[in-house]
Design a protein that fits this description.
This protein is α/β, with parallel strands linked by helices and 232 residues long. The protein has 2 domains: 126 residues, 3-Layer(aba) Sandwich (Rossmann fold), CATH 3.40.50.2300; 101 residues, LytTr DNA-binding domain (OB fold (Dihydrolipoamide Acetyltransferase, E2P)). The protein is 34% helix and 34% strand. The strands form 4 sheets. Strands 2-1-3-4-5 form a 5-stranded parallel β-sheet, with helices on both faces. It has a 5-stranded antiparallel β-sheet with strand order 10-9-8-12-11. Strands 13-14-15 form a 3-stranded antiparallel β-sheet, with no helix packed on it.
Length: 232
């Protein structure tokens, strides 16, 4: 997974030097370089970046002003000639503040830190996005979608089956399916929804889901097969 970034520095010589150094890091991809914050901000209005590398001495708006207006999930590395800027960078929660002139080793340390932080944040966000919320026995429950083995219709309720616990939820199958990550869960029968991550194998009549044999209806057979093959 490559991280996208932009470089903002008013000195064209510095930009050339920095891009030559940054080309050596295969896990990051330069999406644009700018001499001022106005054009950089315009670019960011239409493009999401994982991080920015920005100098403090810029026309119109300073690097600090630019960073303060970044999206919450965009990290920043500050380039400066002033040692005291490190204190302000720390107060703003920046990933790093690098004194010019910048050496390849100093950039390497900073890039490794930002890659680690951004990847960790992405994993956390993905896990949050895959949480499923519902009410069971008048209590609010929250579980990871990946923990669900299958869902079974039980009259006015659905039974959510996980490895450690089953939940009885007042819901229709259609309504509960809409809560789940699209593409990962598919209905195989009027009474069953399966987690494709848990499917071991299937035949023309049934699906082995985490060791449990569940019926595969003729109506859902082609839909299930297409979903399963596209998910792999």
């Amino acid at each position: 997974m490559k991280l996208n970034y932009i470089l903002v520095d008013s000195d064209p010589i510095h930009r050339i030097q920095f891009t030559q150094i940054l080309k050596k890091f295969p896990d990051i991809s330069l999406q644009g370089e700018f001499s001022d914050t106005v054009n950089a901000k315009e670019f960011l209005n239409y493009n999401d970046m994982d991080f920015v590398i920005v100098s403090t001495d810029l026309p119109v708006y300073s690097g600090f002003d630019f960073i303060k207006n970044l999206k919450e999930d965009t990290e920043a590395i500050l380039l400066t000639k002033q040692p005291m800027d490190a204190v302000k960078s720390f107060e703003l929660g920046l990933i790093d503040c690098i004194l010019k002139p910048v050496t390849p080793d100093r950039f390497k340390n900073s890039i490794e830190r930002i890659i680690h932080k951004v990847i960790c944040l992405k994993i956390i966000r993905e896990k949050k996005e895959r949480m499923v919320n519902f009410k069971c026995n008048f209590k609010s429950e929250k579980i990871f979608a990946s923990d669900i083995r299958w869902i079974e219709a039980m009259g006015d309720y659905v039974k959510v089956v996980t490895k450690n616990k089953n939940y009885m939820v007042l819901s229709t199958m259609k309504s509960f399916l809409s809560k789940l990550p699209e593409g990962q869960f598919v209905r195989i029968h009027k009474s069953y929804i399966v987690n494709l991550d848990k499917v071991n194998y299937f035949t023309s009549k049934d699906v082995n889901t985490d060791g449990k044999i569940l019926p595969l209806s003729r109506k859902q057979k082609n839909i299930f097969k297409d979903s399963y093959l596209n998910y792999q």
